[in-house]
Design brief:
The chain is an all-beta fold. Helix content is 0%, strand content 48%.
């Protein structure tokens, strides 16, 4: 089973950029599709972006054009580059992964598809 650890969160001002990292260990990370989700206080966990084993990407409408997901196979790491941050991006961000024997389109957007989760990292956007 893969283990995931997020890093790179913190406090940012509106319009700033942050890059989140999701480092994997314990299994062959390239065998997994990977996603980022976020959960704001009082709200349900929501899909942000996902990247397949072959580096195909998906992004939620709320972040398209601002957030970019990528992966470095050599470093077993997936990144979420967040630009033009807004106060409504404030949330705990989670990295998650599931085995590529499952599909990607129509699957990666659902939290229930994922079998491994990181502990979460806070991102706060405030002036």
């Amino acid at each position: 089973q893969v283990q995931l650890v997020e890093s790179g969160g913190g406090l940012a001002q509106p319009g700033d950029s942050l890059r989140l990292s999701c480092a994997a260990s314990g299994s062959t990370f390239s065998n997994y599709h990977v996603g980022w989700f976020r959960q704001a206080p009082g709200k349900e966990r929501e899909f942000v972006a996902a990247i397949s084993r072959s580096a195909r990407t998906l992004a939620a409408d709320a972040v398209k054009g601002r957030f970019t997901i990528s992966r470095d196979y050599a470093k077993n790491t997936v990144y979420l580059q967040m630009n033009s941050l807004k106060p409504e991006d404030t949330a705990v961000f989670y990295c998650a992964a599931y085995d590529t024997s499952e599909g990607f389109l129509g699957v990666a957007e659902r939290p229930a598809s994922y079998t491994a989760w990181g502990q979460g990292i806070q991102v706060t956007v405030s002036s």
